[in-house]
Specification:
alpha/beta; two-stranded antiparallel ribbon; 9 helices; about 20% strand
């Protein structure tokens, strides 16, 4: 492969300049998950993207879950993983494992990885400074979910303090309530609420799919733009169904709460975050 010429390098930077200016000093919330979180090459690409954006003046907030790691640890401890309507049933033993794995293992590994890519990162979880206050979530069919939480309040101060000090906040999505109970919170939901409370310019949800497809079996039917008013109609048509419903509901809620735009992008594409932010075409499906 021939190295790119200096002229091409210069042109790439010139083309990116309007987008760097647009996002300078603006907040972008990235929900990190899926294959990009487990594949080493993709993981390195994500960390590089985040550090680069941070260095050119974009205030990146990284929100993460860690479902596979939680399942692995539960298996090692002989605790059964059980799911109710796609949500992990979380009893007292499980919530302790969730807190330990997300805050103690996954979070610190991401902070370490950003440091290896010469980024300044600080690890936080929703319990720190009562950042994420939650109440117990009720399943639509009334089945008990245990300590699965709905975010009811966000204290943004720990996040803004980190950003002001030039750090990239890396947030594990565990939450608390006034009684000191710990809750497992869906990372998409948490990222949407955090983005809204921060008045973010953009919320990016990384997934293992191309985006919203008109025909779920045909990647060429990607829908690049969706107005949130179209979503109910798309649900009735069956275009939005199954596991896409909660993700898209998060996008809609974030936009309605004041986030300029939200995007579902394919985390399997290396540097998909940079493609989304520093180009006119973007990537995935954008909700406005």
């Amino acid at each position: 492969m021939n190295p790119i010429s200096n002229n091409v390098r210069a042109q790439v930077l010139i083309d990116a300049l309007p987008y760097i200016q647009k996002y300078n000093n603006k907040i972008v919330v990235v929900k990190y998950g899926g294959n990009a979180m487990t594949n080493k090459e993709l993981k390195d690409a994500v960390m590089t993207d985040i550090v680069l954006l941070s260095l050119v003046g974009v205030k990146v907030v990284l929100v993460h879950g860690g479902g596979p790691e939680i399942s692995d640890m539960l298996k090692k401890l002989n605790i059964e993983s059980r799911f109710v309507n796609g949500l992990r049933y979380t009893d007292e033993a499980t919530v302790d494992v969730v807190k330990m794995v997300l805050s103690g293992k996954v979070n610190k590994e991401l902070v370490q990885l950003l440091a290896q890519h010469h980024g300044n990162a600080v690890g936080l979880c929703g319990i720190d400074g009562q950042m994420l206050m939650a109440e117990r979530m009720e399943s639509p069919d009334g089945e008990d979910l245990g300590y699965v939480g709905n975010v009811v309040k966000v204290n943004t101060k720990p996040i803004t303090d980190a950003l002001t000090n030039g750090n990239i906040p890396v947030i594990a999505t565990v939450a608390t309530d006034e009684q000191g109970n710990t809750y497992n919170v869906n990372a998409d939901t948490a990222a949407a609420r955090i983005a809204a409370e921060l008045g973010a310019e953009n919320l990016i949800l990384m997934t293992d799919i191309t985006g919203l497809l008109r025909d779920k079996d045909n990647p060429k039917t990607l829908i690049p733009f969706v107005n949130v008013s179209e979503v109910p109609f798309m649900k009735r048509q069956g275009i939005i169904s199954g596991g896409m419903i909660p993700k898209i509901d998060c996008c809609v809620e974030a936009v309605r709460r004041g986030v300029k735009k939200t995007v579902i992008i394919d985390g399997r594409v290396p540097h998909s975050i940079l493609i989304e932010i520093l180009s006119n075409e973007g990537i995935g499906t954008q909700f406005t």
